[in-house]
Amino acid sequence: MTGGTRGLGFAIAKAFLAEGASVMVSARTAGDFQLLKSEYPDRCLFHPADVADPNSVERLMAATVEALGGLDVVVANAGVSCDGRIEDLEPAAWDAMVTTNLTGTFLCTRAAVPHMRDHGGVIINMSSSMASRIAVGAAGYSATKAAIEMFTRTSAIELGQYGIRVNALSPGILDAGMGGRLAENDRVWAAYRKRFALGRAGRVGEAAQAAVFLASADASYVNGAVLDVNGGLMWA
User: Fold this and answer.
1) How confident is the model at residue 236 (pLDDT cuts 50, 70, 90)?
2) DSSP string spanning 100-169?
3) Domain residues of the chain, as ranges?
4) pLDDT tens readout for residues 34-52
């Protein structure tokens, strides 16, 4: 579980733990990991990793196999967003998004395959509703998420022969992280609220349960899909 010490990643890790899974939580820093550890002391571990570093990702996968006895599910959630119009966006910010969001997803898949090839597994990549919706100032983030969706589809075709299913989760605006910050601004929130078919933002727990579904036997024939979890998000 990369990017698992805060926000949606934290919620997904907690949802898997609640289902009885053993979870290796990873991020560059421990963040809120101890909150998970205190609740699930026997099934929750932490290993620091930088998804932009191939060696770091390979060490993460190897450490997971050594500690937990195998690798069944990978959730590639780590990501960054740097707002900025194209004419103002610094190349370093663009590189950070491409390297962390897209290359990091690729490296997680690449490092997981050797540990899943013989028995199958599930890989869940993190997309976003902004992969298919235009937002001024979000060119870099949106481009990486759109690329992740195509990478997911291609991975599903290539890795299906090993019994490895690869899908993407595409959350809309949630009540934590960037969505939570939107809700704190009354003027901005009044405009955004009109975009929700259900009249509210999503809860991180709702998106986390969708990730649990994709990893479960109930989704055994779901492969190469992008699962929208946005409550019917209208964008204009």
Assistant:
1) low
2) IIIIHHHHHHHHHHHHHTTT-EEEEEE--GGGSS--TT-HHHHHHHHHHHHHHHHHHHHHGGGTEEEEEE
3) 7-229
4) 999 999 999 999 999 999 9
The pair phi, psi for residue 166, each rounded to 5°, is -125, 120
- What is the reported pTM? 0.95
Pure H helices in the chain: 7-18, 33-39, 54-68, 91-97, 104-116, 139-159, 177-183, 186-193, 204-215
Residue 199: which residues within 8 A CB-CB, separation 6 or more?
A: 193
Q: Which residues are catalytic?
A: 141
Number of residues written out for the chain: 236
Amino acid at 161: Q
In the CATH hierarchy, which top-level class contains the domain 7-229? Answer: alpha beta
